């Protein structure tokens, strides 16, 4: 399964608040970190498989990932929002896509970044994340959603 799909399920379940982790990991945003939450969902699936067998694990996945599976069948899963935004915007020729770090806050071990994405100097989206990369992906995702709303 795709890390983002696993992460979305973890967020839906609010899994972060149930994870036992070190104080240091917690202070650095571990309860919201994509990789940790995705790994925990994988571990739950593995535990079901080990405890109850393949059919139960399969049933669990089919039930909990129904929306994700349907999106995958329709080829509507985006793994990299920045690349997708670039593809959409450059359909009609070259454009200037700019990601600007607007601010960051918090201590070094728990920094939150705020990014805005502009196309030809027009702001299309703002995003946040616990890394610059994550905040840029968030901004691109919001830009794509805005474009979809305006064109759909």
Automatic annotation (TrEMBL):
Q: Where is this region: Disordered?
A: 127-152
The keyword Zinc-finger is annotated on this UniProt entry: no
Leading EC class: hydrolase
EC number(s) given by UniProt: 3.1.26.3
Q: Which GO terms describe its biological process?
A: mRNA processing; regulation of gene expression; rRNA processing; tRNA processing
Q: List the keywords (alphabetical).
A: Cytoplasm, Endonuclease, Hydrolase, Magnesium, Metal-binding, mRNA processing, Nuclease, RNA-binding, rRNA processing, tRNA processing
Residue span(s) of domain RNase III? 1-53
Can you give the residue ranges of the DRBM domain?
Answer: 80-149
Q: Which family does it belong to?
A: Belongs to the ribonuclease III family.
Name of the protein in its database record: Ribonuclease III
